[in-house]
């Protein structure tokens, strides 16, 4: 339950002595609920890590720690940081310094939230066994918006939720368990999150009233989030004005509609002065939007932006817009093209408090997709990238799939925008185009399960997302190591095993499920488990076109949908070329015969067989590796993961056999190694 706030007890030894020396006394002189929360976190952490009661002192005479803002009047904070340091700390950053002469480790920041981040940073250093004798650094978050999107519904269900039900709502009522909300806010802020949208992007009837009838309930949650430096956002229904029967239309250019949103905004800010803003899914998967009135997405987003603008609120407008009623016989329409085709022409037309939220890939959070070509194509528009921490297509938190390596790969992708090196991370942090607003959002994977995420190892994705949003330069290994130390302690043998499991898991999952970038070979609707033709004759635009000769989607310019041309520079050329297209995305861009030879030297069909046999074996290997930890970690933690890994190993075999059998029957080509295919 405490996840990365478990603070596992440290072993006695030289480091323990060092920590005990510094951590016995703590000095905080400012009031303020955020600073008090930081102090509480510290006291709790030290008590658990070191078995030490941190004594609060106005000014420790002996060794101690001091926390405060630069303007808070604490003499040690004022004395220990030079002006130059103070100036380099941004709104949410912090400075941390060990002074041997003053016998003090000081955490100073511009804001109380910054102090909270700094205090947790110090706790993390201690929990991971780092030396704290000579600290001297300034740490600022790279991304200004670090956001979690809940897909929780008011009835208590969670869309694509794999960790039980919602802990925010049940039975069309807000939770009364404010302790859980507080613990959630603690978890999120210590991972670096500063914005949370608390309801599903698909806004149903009652959730439409969150901005009116239910505002007092929403405000109670915002009051807790505020303590932890988190701004609350709401998903809104674009047709809200009609829903409440007050206005007969939702046309964004209608004066009555504009007034309605303005008056809602006034009410919201009266209740929640630091309200973040709206998240909007419009004209997408049957949600209402401006298209109904012959208006475009800029008209829709700007109208909402005007309502929020006087209060500093923002509109986060999602780009997940495509035709979800496609005829599978129609070979011209390509869903992958949709976001770019809709939004690129609108570049420059959005108000500066609008942010476009773009899914990482052109389809929908598949195990493997190329990066959305919209990144780099919008030169004058604020934008955030949207990841999915919830493992909708990556094992639904029954399989382990550590997603940080996937997110890293996406962030490092060079879009070649502006004619030079332009990785996605420089677009979403706002530096490439000088955006005022920018950042990273992700769909949450939490629920009311005791351990928050169903699969214990999925906590690493939640923590990892926050850390990566804070600093995209952290490696997947470093983030895993932090999470492991905070959760399981500093035993290096244990850490080695868990780290290996995490770091291999995406590749393993990909190998027994989805070969060469093909995607969508899953059961319709719930999306769990193998079904090669599950989406083949559907209206969702998600096809692989497998027949007895070959498989893949031709997205080339000459013979296909032309999607490859949405990329810039050598990316467009590489993806378009059958010879140069990277193996892992081959079937996303090209339709090829099963006998096509990959860069690896294998044929496509042999690659499918080999990866599926190997993948299932490696899934079994994860279970074996975990088995080696029995006795070295707490029984409760051990058994819950063991159970899931058993399920994964068994289910990986099901994937292996269904996929291999399907392609063997289609192609008639035998496995070169003669293994059993049914
Ligand atoms: C996916 C997911 C839906 C969700 C949608 C979205 O299609 O399956 O449940 O509503 O994405 O991001 O809006």
UniProtKB/TrEMBL annotation:
Keywords: Carbohydrate metabolism, Glycosidase, Hydrolase, Polysaccharide degradation, Xylan degradation. It holds the Pfam family Glyco_hydro_67N. Its EC number is 3.2.1.131. GO terms for molecular function: hydrolase activity. Residues 126-452 form the Glycosyl hydrolase family 67 catalytic domain. It is an enzyme of class 3 (hydrolase). Homodimer. This is Xylan alpha-1,2-glucuronidase. It comes from Paenibacillus rhizoplanae. Residues 453-675 form the Glycosyl hydrolase family 67 C-terminal domain. Residues 3-122 form the Alpha glucuronidase N-terminal domain. It catalyses: Hydrolysis of (1->2)-alpha-D-(4-O-methyl)glucuronosyl links in the main chain of hardwood xylans. Belongs to the glycosyl hydrolase 67 family.
């Amino acid at each position: 339950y405490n996840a990365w706030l478990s603070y596992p007890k440290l072993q006695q030894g030289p480091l323990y002595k060092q920590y005990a020396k510094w951590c016995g006394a703590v000095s905080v002189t400012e009031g303020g609920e955020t600073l008090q929360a930081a102090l509480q976190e510290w006291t709790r952490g030290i008590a658990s890590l070191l078995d030490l009661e941190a004594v609060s002192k106005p000014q420790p005479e002996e060794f101690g720690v001091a926390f405060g803002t630069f303007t808070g009047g604490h003499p040690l904070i004022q004395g220990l940081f030079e002006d130059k340091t103070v100036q380099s700390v941004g709104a949410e950053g912090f400075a941390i310094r060990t002074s041997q002469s003053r016998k003090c480790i000081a955490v100073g920041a511009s804001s109380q939230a910054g102090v909270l981040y700094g205090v947790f940073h110090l706790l993390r250093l201690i929990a991971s066994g780092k030396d704290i004798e000579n600290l001297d650094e300034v740490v600022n978050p790279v991304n200004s918006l670090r956001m979690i999107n809940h897909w929780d519904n008011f009835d208590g269900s969670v869309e694509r939720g794999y960790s039980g039900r919602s802990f925010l709502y049940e039975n069309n009522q807000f939770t009364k368990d404010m302790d859980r909300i507080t613990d959630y806010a603690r978890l999120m802020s210590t991972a670096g999150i500063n914005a949370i949208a608390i309801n599903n992007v698909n806004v149903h009837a009652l959730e439409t009233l969150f901005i009116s009838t239910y505002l007092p309930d929403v405000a109670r949650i915002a009051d807790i989030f505020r303590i932890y430096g988190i701004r609350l956002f709401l998903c809104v229904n674009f047709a809200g004005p009609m829903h409440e029967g007050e206005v007969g239309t939702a046309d964004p250019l209608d004066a009555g509609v504009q007034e309605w949103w303005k008056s809602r905004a006034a009410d919201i800010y009266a209740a929640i002065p630091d309200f973040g803003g709206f998240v909007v899914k419009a004209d997408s998967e049957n949600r209402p939007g401006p298209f109904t009135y012959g208006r475009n997405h800029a008209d829709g987003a700007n109208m909402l932006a005007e309502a929020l603008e006087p209060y500093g609120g923002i509109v986060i407008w999602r780009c997940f817009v495509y035709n979800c009623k496609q005829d599978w016989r129609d070979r011209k329409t390509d869903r992958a093209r949709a976001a770019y085709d809709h939004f690129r022409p609108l570049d420059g037309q959005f108000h500066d408090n609008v942010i476009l939220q773009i899914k990482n890939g052109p389809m929908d959070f598949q195990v493997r997709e190329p990066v959305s070509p919209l990144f780099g194509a919008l030169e004058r528009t604020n934008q955030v990238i949207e990841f999915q921490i919830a493992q909708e297509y990556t094992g639904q938190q029954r399989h382990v799939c550590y997603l940080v390596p996937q997110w890293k790969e996406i962030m490092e992708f060079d879009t070649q925008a502006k004619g030079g090196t332009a990785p996605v991370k420089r677009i979403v942090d706002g530096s490439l185009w000088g955006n005022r607003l920018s950042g990273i959002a992700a769909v949450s994977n939490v629920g009311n399960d005791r351990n928050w995420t169903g699969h214990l190892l999925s906590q690493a994705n939640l923590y990892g997302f926050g850390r990566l949003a804070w600093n995209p330069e952290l490696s997947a290994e470093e983030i895993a190591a932090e999470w492991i130390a905070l959760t399981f302690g500093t035993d290096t043998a244990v850490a080695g095993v868990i780290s290996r499991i995490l770091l291999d898991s995406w590749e393993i999952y990909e190998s027994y499920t989805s070969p060469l970038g093909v995607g969508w070979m899953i059961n319709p609707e719930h999306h769990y488990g193998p079904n090669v033709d599950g989406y083949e004759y559907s209206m969702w635009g998600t096809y692989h076109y497998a027949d007895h000769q070959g498989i893949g989607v031709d997205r080339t310019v000459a013979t296909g949908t032309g999607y490859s041309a949405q990329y810039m520079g050598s990316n467009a050329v590489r993806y378009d070329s059958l010879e140069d297209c990277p193996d892992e995305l081959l079937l996303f861009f090209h339709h090829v015969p099963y006998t096509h030879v990959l860069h690896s030297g294998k044929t496509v069909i042999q690659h499918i067989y080999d990866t599926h046999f190997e993948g299932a074996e490696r899934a079994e290997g994860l279970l074996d590796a975990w088995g080696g930890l029995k006795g070295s970690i707490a029984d409760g933690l051990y058994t819950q993961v063991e159970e899931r890994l058993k399920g994964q190993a068994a289910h990986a075999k099901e994937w292996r056999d269904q996929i291999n059998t399907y392609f063997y029957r289609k192609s008639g080509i035998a496995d070169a190694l003669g293994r059993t295919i049914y």
